[in-house]
Hints:
By secondary structure, this protein is of the alpha+beta class. The protein folds into three domains: 3-54, Single Sheet (N-terminal domain of TfIIb), CATH 2.20.25; 61-95, no CATH class; 97-135, no CATH class. The protein has three helices and seven strands, in the order βββαββαβαβ. The strands form three sheets. Strands 1-2-3 form a three-stranded antiparallel β-sheet, with no helix packed on it. A two-stranded antiparallel sheet has the order 4-5. The chain has a two-stranded parallel sheet with strand order 6-7. The protein starts with a strand and ends with a strand. The relative contact order is 0.12.
Amino acid sequence: MEYKTVLTTCTYCGCGCNFYLEVLDGQIVGTIPCKTSPVSEGKLCIKGWNVHEFVQSPKRLQHPLIRKNGALTEVSWDEALDYTVSRLKAIKEAHGSDSIAFLTSAKVTNEENYLLQKFARAAVGTNSVDHCARL
């Protein structure tokens, strides 16, 4: 039996609380607050205490899916990315860059949110970016 803890940052909001994931034989089994975290000071909200549960959920998508003939079909990452790029280009050419909007999540880091808004503004050319925590 192998047990270890892994220091990480919570993915539920932008606060940046730290905690340790308890890992037993390669499976995440629990969460321990990090007492030296300057943000959470050894405390966690209910979401932080249970953040480990979604990681190994059987409901999580494991592969990209594209709708083909009315059904979602498992495809490779290359096919999924090529499809996404071609659809975004087609929509932008037909309707303009402001016809595309981006909604980001509190379940990713602030840095990942920054990257998405940078992609939206610099690559796609739209300022239509929103965040679920604002709603």
